[in-house]
Amino acid sequence: MKTLLLNVDEHVRVFILKQAQQWADERYKISRKEWKKLLPKLLELWPRQLRTRSPAVSAALCEVALFSGDQIPTLFEIIPRHLCKVNQHCFIDTTSWKFKSGTIRKYSHEIADILYRILPENPYDWPYGMSDIIKILEEENKNINKNEKFTTLKRYLSTLDRI
């Protein structure tokens, strides 16, 4: 699998991640539990070579982790070594996150740390919807302002107000 991931292009890597995310989704109750158990193993064997990193793969890795629910802490320990900065051309599905289930509230610090890793300093280069996520993180967890990475993201975002 590692050799395959090394030798395919970015589109195939993203497709593999999206497929794994879909199989682990709650809507597929038959296979969900088995696939959720396999997600950490898939990400552990994900190649670390620079050529396998791209903004699109980073966005897909974040989505997989964010949709994993209770596995967020486990996956957020694994994926940072595979990430690079994303850009406005990347798509991170922010509309489907389970806001009502408390995912953002429960894992707000982990989410802020990952967003800090992938978002560039210029908020104009952020994928669509990321500024909304920053606001939602703050609304859901009042203590998030003590998180240094979150406050840095807020500072980046405040530059939009000055322009």
Question: How is the topology of this model organized?
Answer:
Elements: H1 2-7, H2 10-23, H3 29-44, H4 55-66, H5 72-78, H6 103-106, H7 108-118, H8 130-140, H9 148-162
Folded structure, characterized:
The chain is an all-alpha fold and 163 residues long. The protein has one domain. Helices cover 59% and strands 0% of the residues. It is built from 9 helices and no strands. Helix 2 packs parallel to helix 4. The radius of gyration is 16 Å and the shape is globular. The protein starts with a helix and ends with a helix. The relative contact order is 0.11.
How would you summarize this macromolecular structure in one to three sentences?
With 163 residues, the chain is mainly alpha-helical.
Taken from the alpha-carbon principal axes, the silhouette is globular
- Helix count equals 9
Count the beta strands.
Answer: 0
Briefly note the structural class of the backbone.
mainly alpha
Indicate the mean pLDDT.
86
C-alpha Rg (nearest Å)? 16 Å
What's the SSE pattern? Answer: HHHHHHHHH
Beta-strand level of the residues, as a percent range? under 5%
- Percentage of helical residues? 55-70%
Domain count: the total is 1
Low-confidence stretches: none
The major β-sheet equals: none
Termini separation comes to: 47 Å
Primary descriptors:
single chain, about 160 residues, mainly alpha, about 0% strand, globular
